[in-house]
Design brief:
The complex is a heterotrimer of chains A (about 120), B (about 100) and C (about 100). Chain A has a single domain, classed as DsrEFH-like (Hypothetical Protein Ychn, Chain: A, 3-Layer(aba) Sandwich), CATH 3.40.1260.10. Chain A is about 25% helix and about 20% strand. In chain A, strand 2, helix 3 and strand 3 form a beta-alpha-beta unit. The relative contact order of chain A is 0.24. The longest helix of chain B has 10 residues. Classes of the chains: A alpha/beta (about 120), B alpha/beta (about 100), C mainly alpha (about 100). Chains in contact: A-B, A-C.
């Protein structure tokens, strides 16, 4: 991605873990809604939000839908990219190539490239 | 027996970043038992968290989050164990 | 076998109880006779649900997904509207046994 396109792209940041509350879901909904109207949008997972990307999730045991599976539809719907913060992947012991949904691994200051950043 | 001497079971369901997570750890006495539920279970794989020895976690919450094979089997607690555990303690604190 | 349980809008309560005869019957309620073109989209939705555990959340995203997977000739709202009248995402998900798209009014 060059600097011109990232200037227009809205970066949705998910920094909350899945399943415990609805913040992450609402953030993903917002990303999909922007994509539905062909607005450039990308999603960055950092902090506890990287748990969205962990392989081997099975949320059926707590009667929920597995978020990593939902997430794998995002690029099909036109979300430009999924990014994951390198330092928090390491903090929570998730290998960079491990996730089912392969994110682009980025450094902590990555979001500075975007003019529109949204965290819910 | 006074309340402070009585061992307590702490039920913690907040993620490590939540202020109450640290509040719970700070409130624990050495004889207390910690049981992690819901988002608190991610602390088990958090390199920055230091949990008391003998910490347990609800198995279904670990499985949902893909943590089952990252956690020692002895720490995993199913619903039946949890009920038994709550019977063992007269003092239970939910965070 | 009894017809699977459905909600008040006619969507299956359990997507895994779906079968082709169920689809035929739900389609008939809306006066739709299923052709190969319908089945192609129904199969796409079934596969989509197996992989992602969600319905396309809105009609626009349904059209986008079809476009991505089958190309522009089929991934456009006119084509899908002809096959699945009303709100295509809702009608198609109902027939394919998927949950109601969350953002379709």
């Amino acid at each position: 991605m060059n600097d011109d396109s990232s200037a227009d792209t809205v970066l949705i940041v998910i920094d909350r873990p899945p399943y415990g509350d609805w913040h992450g879901r609402e953030a993903l909904d917002m990303a999909l809604s922007l994509a539905a109207f062909d607005r450039p949008v990308a999603v960055l997972f950092r902090g506890e939000g990287v748990h969205w990307l962990r392989p081997g999730q099975n949320a059926s045991v707590i009667d929920q839908k597995t978020v990593s599976r939902n997430l794998s539809a995002a690029t099909l719907f036109g979300v430009e990219a999924l990014y994951a913060d390198r330092s928090t992947l390491a903090r929570f012991q998730i290998g960079e190539t491990e996730p089912d949904v392969t994110p682009i691994v980025v450094d902590p200051d990555f979001y500075h490239r975007f003019k529109k950043v949204v965290q819910l | 027996m006074n309340d402070t001497a009585m061992p307590a079971l702490h039920l913690l369901n907040k993620a490590p970043s939540h202020p109450r997570f640290q509040a719970c750890l700070a409130a624990m006495d050495p004889a207390d038992q910690l049981l992690l539920l819901e988002n608190a279970v991610i602390a088990l794989v958090d390199k920055t968290a230091s949990l008391p020895a003998g910490t347990r976690a609800l198995a279904s919450d670990c499985e949902a989050r893909g943590l089952s094979d990252k956690v020692a089997a002895s720490a995993l607690t199913d619903m039946a164990d949890m009920v038994e555990l709550t019977d063992q303690f007269t003092k239970i604190i939910s965070w | 076998m009894a017809f699977p349980e459905r909600n008040n809008e006619g969507f299956l309560n359990n997507p895994w109880q779906w079968s082709e005869p169920v689809a035929t019957e739900i389609a008939a309620e809306s006066g739709i006779e299923l052709t190969d073109n319908h089945w192609e989209i129904i199969q796409l939705l079934r596969d989509f649900y197996k992989q992602h555990e969600i319905s396309p959340p809105s009609n626009r995203l349904f059209v986008k997904a079809v476009k991505e997977l089958l190309g522009e000739e089929k991934g456009n709202s006119i084509y899908l509207m002809q096959l699945f009248p009303g709100t295509p995402a809702k009608t198609a998900c109902r027939i394919a046994g998927l949950p109601r798209p969350t953002n379709c009014l």
